[in-house]
Amino acid sequence: MLEFLSPPAGIFWTDVVVTSKASISRWRNCGVLILRGAHAIRDLRSGLLDLIYWLDAHPDHQGLLVLADARLAEDSLEKEFERSRCVIRSDLIDRVEVVILNDPDGLAPLVERLNLPAGARHGLRDHIRKQLEKTRRRRIPQSAHDLVFETLVNRWLLGHGPMTTESLIEATGF
Question: Could you tell me the pTM of the whole model?
């Protein structure tokens, strides 16, 4: 269960802390990690460990791992989280909540289940929504992939040397 503290006067809890490739944002006394498109158990483990390392450095904080657009079965995720409870210190793992958010409309019910005061629910929901927007992946149309592939094959057939990413972007627009 998450419990949130009100921030002290003059302190803003919107800092973003980067650990490895993960970006953990702070909301009140909670570290929020959005993990998009998890398709393997190792993705869950990686995100969970990033959050655990962060919590170890912030002993007065809670952790919320949001699995957005996860392609893993919910029972697999629950089993892995339970296995993690056996090997991660209890003072850390007990401060972590893992939630699955595959439908943006499910954000409100998801936050409701966290047993927070009404004002905190609204604030956390807004914070998660903003973080989801920041982590949204840009979808590149298939035609763009084809154009990049065609450009690389054409250069190879013409016997031209390697191409930098920047020159490939200039040549294709992607």
Answer: 0.65
